[in-house]
């Protein structure tokens, strides 16, 4: 499933950065919407199966910091540091770019703290401090890649873990709300293009396509268990983005 996710992730990133050059149809953007929710699903599963949650978090967090560095370098070299609306330097544009590592790390940390609050009997002071931590982390998740959507999906997968019917209801309900939001964007505003253009741009409702993959998940680790398979995503993610970033600059 991770290999399938990686393949469609590459297609999605090619579409984002090279879609115009390659004249890809707008519907290509719909193909990869299941990828981030799928990796969020595996983050929740990994939360329970990993031998060390701390090491799991730090691997993702360090990967996120690395991606910030790659995005920073790219934006400086391409002079992509100015807000197009204010025409002023914007630190958020300085670090903008793909960084699912940081999103996964933050969602994992948020779920970890939430699980600690729910499962453990803590002193009231500790409860208060952890709740403050949850609120603070949310602010960082909201500005991370796909953060608001992936936080909701993470909550659904965590709260409904092991019950596909409940997961389906949660995912379908959230996707329906996002679809309604997309329709409201089309009918409630002027100069937003055609309905087709709107639904292929505001397309997060297609996260519903993650459900067949979750249904097929059997709780077992895929592959042969070799170390390179475990670490494939950590190496492949930054390398493929560097290549796509370079190609997008050339073309």
TrEMBL record:
Q: List where the protein spans the membrane.
A: 21-44, 56-77, 89-113, 125-143, 164-184, 204-220, 232-250
Q: Which UniProt keywords apply?
A: Membrane, Transmembrane, Transmembrane helix
Q: Name one Pfam family in it.
A: TraX
- The protein's superkingdom reads Bacteria
Name listed for the protein in its UniProt record: TraX family protein
Q: Which organism is it from?
A: Weissella sagaensis
